[in-house]
Amino acid sequence: MAQSLRMYTEEQVAEMLQVSLSQLRKWRMKQHEGLRQGGPPFRKIGRLVRYPEAALRVYINSEQTDPAL
């Protein structure tokens, strides 16, 4: 099966995840520093930041809720 080439902007992903754009950027910076905590995988295309649909689906489906909530 062909993999989706759909890519989302950071604004679109922030809205989908119902988090602030600032929070999404903080997660991205942690990933850039080598800490694999926080947000969904992203790609840099030149100066643009994009979130691949396939990776975003995996991230959303693999996130587990905190039992303390």
Walk me through the structure.
The protein has three helices and three strands. Strands 1-3-2 form a three-stranded antiparallel sheet. The chain has one domain (about 5-60). The mean pLDDT is about 85. With about 70 residues, it is an alpha+beta fold.
Summary, kept brief:
With about 70 residues, the chain is of the alpha+beta class.
Tell me the layout of helices and strands.
Layout: E1 7-8, H1 10-17, H2 21-32, E2 43-45, E3 48-52, H3 53-62
Antiparallel strand pairs: 1-3, 2-3
Helix pairs in contact: 1-2
Order of helices and strands: EHHEEH
Q: What is the overall shape?
A: globular
What fraction of the residues are assigned to beta strands by DSSP? 5-15%
So how many helices?
A: 3
Keyword list:
single chain; 69 residues; three-stranded antiparallel β-sheet; 43% helix
